[in-house]
Specification:
By secondary structure, the chain is α/β, with parallel strands linked by helices. It contains 10 helices and 9 strands. The radius of gyration is 25 Å and the shape is elongated.
């Protein structure tokens, strides 16, 4: 694979009100480097900068549309320059019916880029102006019947097939109840009923990151049973959170001081879920007295 093939560039364009702003947010969630309303003349220069990033920027999504005014007229020149430099790109064109676009503009009270005429005239004029670009598009999505969630599903289906579950980070936080609940927690689980290493003299100075503490906790059948039930619950519910479009899920595990039990269980839970989901672990109170 050559250097110019090592970068994926998606140009998002189409009719105003068809969902381009939501689309760019979806690409950002997928890990694309995103730029909104980039002047067309800068697209080839930006692409070259990305190629020079030594792999740090490998996927790029750009929104370019009629908001650029007179600058938008240079888009075809920019695309020709990209092709001349053998830089691959694809065009994602979003559209919707006149009736749907009218309704969306009235509901949001946003100004159409072609605001020097009536709204319906502006929509039809923009559709005509973009017809040639639409003909060049690699993918066309009609969002007339789409909700924001539907558009997100479609983009994930096209650009991240089979990886949708890893798009939403699951953040597992260990904490101590004596220091208060994590303010951003979505789900809170109390593990204070488990045997407490704090009362074992040689384990007290250690933390849940130490193998001796884990060995002690997993000596008890209640720990195994609880972890199995907790894993089952999360593996059942996480796909529904993803389906609802949640940006991240914060799962908090709390013990008394946030040093032993919650830490060890957070690490184990991250291991159990890590093969399927994008998991992060944070130990909020591990270093507190």
């Amino acid at each position: 694979m050559g250097q110019k093939d090592a970068i994926q560039i998606v140009l998002i364009t189409g009719l105003s009100g068809a969902g381009k702003s939501h689309a760019i947010n979806c690409f950002e969630d997928l890990g694309f480097f995103c730029v909104d309303n980039l002047p067309p003349a800068l697209i080839p220069k930006f692409a070259k900068l990305c190629l020079q990033s030594e792999g740090k920027i490998s996927r790029v999504a750009l929104v370019c549309d009629m908001r650029g005014g007179a600058f938008f007229n240079h888009l075809f020149e920019a695309l020709q320059e990209m092709e001349g430099n053998e830089i691959n790109y694809e065009i994602l064109f979003l559209e919707a019916s006149d009736e749907v676009l009218l309704r969306r503009f009235k509901e949001t009270r946003r100004r159409h880029p072609l605001s020097n005429m009536g709204l319906l005239e502006a929509i039809q004029a923009e559709r005509l102006a973009l017809s040639e670009l639409r003909g060049k598009a690699d993918r066309i999505i009609d969002t007339s019947s789409f909700s924001p969630r539907d558009l997100k599903e479609k983009i994930y289906e096209i650009y991240e097939p089979g990886q949708r579950e890893r798009s939403m980070p699951v953040i597992i936080v260990s904490f101590g109840f004596k220091y208060g609940l994590p303010l951003d927690a979505d789900l809170v689980f109390d593990v204070r009923f488990l045997p407490n290493p704090h009362y074992v003299e040689h384990l007290r100075p250690l933390t849940g990151e130490d193998p001796q503490v884990k060995e002690y906790l997993w000596r008890w059948m209640v720990t195994h049973k609880y972890m199995q039930k907790l894993q089952d619950l999360l593996e059942f519910s996480i796909p529904y959170y993803i389906r609802e479009g949640k940006a991240q899920l914060v799962v908090a595990l709390g013990c008394t001081g946030g040093k032993h039990r919650s830490v060890a269980l957070a690490i184990e839970l991250a291991r159990l879920l890590g093969s399927r989901y994008r998991v992060q672990v944070e130990h909020r109170d591990i270093n507190k007295v």
